[in-house]
Amino acid sequence: MYFAIYALDKPDMLDVRMKTRAAHREYLHSPDAPVRLMLGGPMLADDGETMVGSLIVVEADSIEKVEAFSANDPYRLAGLVGSVSIRPWNWTAGNPDLADAS
Asked: Sorting pLDDT into bands at 50, 70 and 90, what band is 22?
């Protein structure tokens, strides 16, 4: 099953984000992760440049695995994240696994 992780940064934390970004990206791509990263990237402020959060889609057996994965993200451990929402997601449009289902 797919899950969307929607995380918003606390205000005025861009410096923490930038200092932690390499560790965050390495964590997302860890071969030992309990989830499989499908897609993700930073959410941007209205200026279209300033990073203010993250949207990450993973595949996992349970929401509990996704919650544990999210809780151990270096961004969260560094105190960057102000709020997180995790929801099951039905990936239909653009899903490469469904390309032959049309």
From this structure: very high
In a domain, 102, yes or no: no
Lookup result for tokens 């451990």: 77
Q: Is residue 100 part of a domain?
A: no
Note whether 35 and 49 are within 8 A (CB).
no
**Domains contained in the chain, number:** 1
pLDDT digits (tens, 9 = 90+) for 42-68: 999 999 999 999 999 999 999 999 999
Domain, as residue range, for 44: 2-90
Buried b (16+ CB within 10 A) or exposed e, 15-28: ebbeebeeebeebb
Separation of alpha carbons 75 and 52, rounded Å: 12
| 39 assigned to some structural domain | yes
Q: How many residues are present in the chain?
A: 102
d(CA 36, CA 45): 27
